[in-house]
Amino acid sequence: NSLLLFDPLDENTIKGIEKGELKEEKGRNEILYQKYHWDIFASKSLLCIGPEEKSPNVLLNDILEEEKREKINKMKEACCIGFKWAMSSGPLCEEEMRNCRVRIIDLEFERNVDEQQVIQALRRSIYAGIILSSPQLLEPIYSVEIITPENAIKGITKSISDRRGFIIQQQPLEGTPFQQIHGNIPLIEIFGFETDIRTFSRGQAFVQSWFDHWGIVPGDPLDKEIKPLNLQPNPQPYLSREFMMKTRRRKGLIDDVDTSKYFDEEMLSTMDQNNFIF
């Protein structure tokens, strides 16, 4: 039996992990407490980061009862393997997860439990918890910089908006007749963007782009009421569901997450009685 809590990892800790500031176990607790403002108990509870040393997901031993806490620490390696396995292949699309903080609040072991059983049990519990925690899909967001003549700005602005993007800044380029535009566009929408810009500006504009951050895809990927449209653009609330289904199909998976893999019959029955809808 296990009791886990899930919440998003804070932005500062995410950046610290991705910079590699927390990859060494030695001194990590102190860094979390002093630089990232974790409380003392949480900073001492970190078991591991994963699935890679710069992946922004963490597993914490938040059990208060000392005897149980020690049992988890003795099984640390198995717990971390189960956690990293789960983080490397999430339940929605079997892709690596991001920004997850998993806290072990309680965990009961059988007397003769082996490490393999701990790995499987924790992995399954994490998947079940993720599904119940309203998971969301993330997509790469690119920064774009455009140098363009002023007469092309209207078309460029519309193109950015049509691609689910937005303009962050627009300013004249001193000493020239050109304008400089900074904006953000989801990567999946950026293909063909440079061609559009050159068309609007008659070849006079210059475009460059680079990865900026991960953003949340609009919509709920687990909402079965949403039926994505075929052969036509979907409204934004449909996108998360559409992306999940298409990714799963590409991998040879069924369209929806198979909840029977993560929940036993008793738990599914209890959730059904409480009107919990997947």
Automatic annotation (TrEMBL):
UniProt KW keywords: GTP-binding, Nucleotide-binding, Ribonucleoprotein
Gene Ontology cellular component list: cytosol; U2-type catalytic step 2 spliceosome; U4/U6 x U5 tri-snRNP complex
SUPFAM superfamilies per UniProt: EF-G C-terminal domain-like (SSF54980), Ribosomal protein S5 domain 2-like (SSF54211)
Superkingdom of the organism of origin: Eukaryota
Recorded GO MF terms: GTP binding; GTPase activity; U5 snRNA binding
Higher taxonomy: Eukaryota, Amoebozoa, Evosea, Archamoebae, Mastigamoebida
Native source species: Entamoeba dispar (strain ATCC PRA-260 / SAW760)
GO terms, biological process: mRNA splicing, via spliceosome
Domain (Translation elongation factor EFG/EF2) ranges: 20-134
One matching Pfam family: EFG_C
Classification via CDD domains: eEF2_C_snRNP
Protein name: 116 kD U5 small nuclear ribonucleoprotein component, putative
Domain Elongation factor EFG: 136-225
